[in-house]
Amino acid sequence: MSFSNQTLLPFSVTFFTARLANRDSMLLTDEISALRAATRRTMLRYPFTIDAIAVLPSAIHTIWHLPPGDSNFALRWRMLKTHFSKAIPDTLSRTPAQSRARAKGIWQTSIWEHPIKCARDFDTHVQMIHTSPVIAGLCKTPQDWAYSSVHRQSVIRPFVPETPRISRPAPNPIIARTFHHEGFAPHP
Known about the structure:
- This protein is of the alpha+beta class.
- The protein has a single domain, classed as Alpha-Beta Plaits (2-Layer Sandwich), CATH 3.30.70.
- The protein contains six helices and four strands; from the N terminus they run βααββααβαα.
- It has helices at residues 27-30, 32-45, 73-87, 96-100, 119-135, 173-181; strands at 12-19, 49-55, 59-66, 112-115.
- A four-stranded antiparallel beta sheet has the order 2-3-1-4, with helices on one face.
- Strand 2 and strand 3 (59-66) form a beta hairpin.
- Helix 2 (32-45) crosses helix 3.
- The chain is globular, with a radius of gyration of 23 Å.
- Mean pLDDT is 78; it is low at 1-10, 97-102 and 164-188.
- GO terms for molecular function: sequence-specific DNA binding; transposase activity.
- InterPro entries: RAYT_transposase, Transposase_17, Transposase_17_sf.
- It comes from Sulfitobacter aestuariivivens.
- Residues 9-132 form the Transposase IS200-like domain.
- This is Transposase.
């Protein structure tokens, strides 16, 4: 499983997409109880909050919120994938390399991640998560999909400080007139 280098922040809120190796598989929804159990076991050992989630037949779209000072998503994903893989029947054919590594070949090795930067980014990704079953053609409205956090009373946005915008101060009008009068162009 590969992750980009993560910076340690006082908060860690990240959007993820984890996919099965076989994109035509229905394993995640067929084995939703095993996925829920694997998630609970992982959360008990290494706490995190699921701010939003949609489980599709072969993909999970989610936003996780880790405790302050903790950014180790990779450990949690590894544990969740392992618990899920061990809980389901071993029916897939494996390559010799997968057999040596005791891997079932269920998951793609990489997970797509996007650190949430601000409240608007959070809201955008929650909307993406909740509409993903509709976009995938699995239902007509987000509320029609059973495996989604859209059914919660509300999705509570965690505190994510807004990224400060760096802007240049407005030029002093007296200095600007002086530059123009003397033939100098003001700096952009």
